[in-house]
Amino acid sequence: MRSTKRRWLRIVAAVALAAGSQLTAATALADPEPAPPPTPVANGDPDPNLLHNITYRASATGTSRGAVVAYKIDDNNVNSDQPTLLPGMTFEVNTVLHDPKKAGMEISIQWPYGSNLHCEILADDQIIAQADQFIAPRLFRPKDDPLYGTIQCGAPLDTPAPNATPTPAPVSAPAT
């Protein structure tokens, strides 16, 4: 064979090899087995390793200056924001919690303003708590209701941490 013919045969073989490698199907790697669903704990407590997506929503349909929205950011901490709650606007924030029963929020507005306040809490896209309250405008702060202008939704925010030890009551001296 002549050298030019051998050279052409090598070129054709290289082109055929390159084209053939692109036309053949590559070996697909199998996906690993999906993890089994978590099994419920025997005593009914939530699985401590399972996290739940929590969505807090707050809205107002009136004058609500000085609004403060406080919410549980995790199982032991509370966060707060000061959103502008105008009619038609919704304040929304997302977090994750181990126990959705611990999700709670509180909305308050400054007096003397009044508004219809609405709050809702969603756990894994399901509404677990919601509340509506009309806050009437007042000229003076009511002395007998320190939570006037406040709406609470879900779990209370002021529950102590489970590992907190209560302070003992002072011991009084016996009467003589």
Compact summary:
By secondary structure, this protein is mainly beta. It has one helix spanning 3-23, and strands at residues 52-60, 68-72, 78-81, 90-97, 104-108, 115-123, 126-135, 150-154.
Topology:
Layout (H helix, E strand, L loop, with lengths): L2 H21 L28 E9 L7 E5 L5 E4 L8 E8 L6 E5 L6 E9 L2 E10 L14 E5 L22
Antiparallel strand pairs: 1-4, 1-6, 2-3, 2-5, 5-8, 6-7
Keywords: Signal
Keywords:
single chain, 176 residues, mainly beta, Immunoglobulin-like, signal
What would you note in describing this structure?
The strands form 2 sheets. Strands 4-1-6-7 form a 4-stranded antiparallel beta sheet, with no helix packed on it. Strands 3-2-5-8 form a 4-stranded antiparallel beta sheet, with no helix packed on it. It contains 1 helix and 8 strands, in the order αββββββββ. The protein is elongated. It has 176 residues and is mainly beta. It has a domain of 103 residues: Sandwich (Immunoglobulin-like), CATH 2.60.40. Strand 6 and strand 7 form a beta hairpin. The N and C termini lie far apart (128 Å). Keywords: Signal.
